[in-house]
Design brief:
With 208 residues, this protein is α/β, with parallel strands linked by helices. The chain has helices at 13-26, 41-51, 60-84, 95-105, 110-121, 136-145, 159-175, 189-206, and strands at 2-7, 31-35, 88-92, 128-133, 180-184. A 5-stranded parallel sheet has the order 2-3-1-4-5, with helices on both faces. It is globular, with a radius of gyration of 16 Å. The structure holds adenosine-5'-diphosphate and thymidine-5'-diphosphate (TYD). Thymidine-5'-diphosphate is lined by residues 9, 14, 36-37, 67, 93, 97-98, 101-102, 152, 154.
């Protein structure tokens, strides 16, 4: 079972992914919690180039290709081996992030970005994607409150960028209603976790 956690920055997906991982482990499931861009050494190195705020001249196409390259390495080294061992893979961001951020936010086109990602992933998509949806302004306020978080290159985007990215995520959810389930991320951590766990349990029971 391959589950991805998606949403704009500050929507709380990393927080919930960690709690879901703890909850499933407590219940005896074997899980692997990982993230993109990164998850393995080579992909983390690529992540450092992408997020370096000094790389102001990084071309948008280069950015999309680097995300896809990091994804390929992460898939081969971490995700596929874990799936082979029948583990539940919980991945903080996957291909939908590229479609929404680069395809939508950066206006490269969802289909164009999807095409380079087919090459990167051999067209493997998650079995389930949780889309943590909320107003970008509120999500960015959460990040502002968390002073320890280092500001990266993509954090310097304008609010309109996150609005387009959010809307692209919502369009994807409409396009793939079986795979992508929307979670209202503006609620309390407890409520969001509850909603996420309910959706995951339905999927796990279906696949038994
Ligand atoms: P993301 O991974 O989507 O960027 P994080 O999980 O890092 O988001 O959360 C961003 C900030 O918001 C963190 O400081 C986190 O503690 C806080 N947070 C997460 N979920 C909620 C929530 N439901 N309500 C209020 N604050 C939250
Ligand atoms: P990160 O610090 O992991 O952010 P978050 O905690 O919100 O997930 O930074 C990852 C940034 O990269 C984030 O702004 C989203 C962006 N991103 C893309 O633009 N495209 C992608 O394909 C992926 C995986 C991430």
């Amino acid at each position: 079972m391959f589950i991805s956690f998606e949403g704009i920055d500050g929507s709380g997906k990393s927080t919930i992914a960690k709690l879901v991982d703890e909850q499933l482990k407590k219940e005896g499931y074997q899980t692997v919690l990982t993230r993109e861009p990164g998850g393995v050494k080579i992909a983390e190195d690529i992540r450092a180039i992408i997020l370096d705020k000094n790389n102001t001249n990084l071309d948008d196409h280069t950015e999309a290709l680097l995300f896809a390259a990091a994804r390929r390495q992460h898939l081969k080294e971490r995700i596929l081996p874990a799936l082979k061992e029948n583990k539940i893979v919980l991945c903080d961001r996957f291909v939908d992030s590229s479609l929404a951020y680069q395809g939508g936010g950066k206006h490269l086109g969802v289909n164009e970005v999807y095409n380079i990602n087919i090459f990167a992933t051999d067209n493997l998509l998650p079995d389930l994607t949780l889309l943590f949806d909320m107003d970008p302004q509120e999500a960015l306020k959460r990040i502002d409150k968390n002073k320890e978080r280092e500001v990266n290159r993509l954090d310097l985007e304008k609010l309109s960028f996150y609005e387009t990215t959010r809307n692209t995520f919502l369009d994807l959810a409409k396009k793939y209603p079986t795979r992508i389930k929307i979670v209202n991320a503006s609620k309390s951590i407890h409520e969001v976790l509850d909603e996420a766990m309910k959706i995951i349990k339905v999927k796990l029971n279906e696949s038994k």
